[in-house]
Amino acid sequence: MAPVNLELTVRLVDAAARILVEDGPGGLSLRKVAAAAGVSTMPVYTLFGDKQGLLDAMHREGFRRLGLALAAVPRTDDALADLVALGFAYREAALASPHLYGLMFTGGFGHTEAADATYRPLVTAVARCQSEGVFTGTDPEPVALHLWALAHGMVSLELSGKVDGAAFAEQLGYAGLPFLAR
């Protein structure tokens, strides 16, 4: 088996995502993706096999990018600031790849390790806030779910043009208030 060309894969995934957004699921074809990326259909079929393989790759790539953005958030001495930084990194990743963001959270892909891996840093950050006495409670899961739902909703609203980045920042600030120990 030939080594996977990550640059070509990313280029094809981005082309496919743009087509999906512009033309909808019915307008997405491997032939169109190849043409949009300026390659023959052979590498598209070699890399993805079929349309479902391409959609799966798009899904994984979206979460790969999100994971990289979250992993880039440095850990400081301020647990709450680090948690907030994760929220902003989530938003930036979504805004950087809006064409993939919507696909990441649609049905048809099941529960994936890639998705779970991008949720774990949030749970860990909430647990740190709890263990350091910033947040009340000892179970980080419900708090993390609350924060993720808010961030996801606000990003989705921003991507659809309903709110702006200032609204995201304001709501992110309010999201943690019910859990503050101070």
Automatic annotation (TrEMBL):
<protein>
    <submittedName>
        <fullName>TetR/AcrR family transcriptional regulator</fullName>
    </submittedName>
</protein>
<dbReference type="InterPro" id="IPR050109">
    <property type="entry name" value="HTH-type_TetR-like_transc_reg"/>
</dbReference>
<dbReference type="InterPro" id="IPR036271">
    <property type="entry name" value="Tet_transcr_reg_TetR-rel_C_sf"/>
</dbReference>
<dbReference type="InterPro" id="IPR009057">
    <property type="entry name" value="Homeodomain-like_sf"/>
</dbReference>
<feature type="domain" description="HTH tetR-type">
    <location>
        <begin position="6"/>
        <end position="66"/>
    </location>
</feature>
<keyword id="KW-0238">DNA-binding</keyword>
<dbReference type="Pfam" id="PF00440">
    <property type="entry name" value="TetR_N"/>
</dbReference>
<dbReference type="Pfam" id="PF13305">
    <property type="entry name" value="TetR_C_33"/>
</dbReference>
<keyword id="KW-0804">Transcription</keyword>
<feature type="DNA-binding region" description="H-T-H motif">
    <location>
        <begin position="29"/>
        <end position="48"/>
    </location>
</feature>
<dbReference type="InterPro" id="IPR025996">
    <property type="entry name" value="MT1864/Rv1816-like_C"/>
</dbReference>
<keyword id="KW-0805">Transcription regulation</keyword>
<dbReference type="InterPro" id="IPR001647">
    <property type="entry name" value="HTH_TetR"/>
</dbReference>
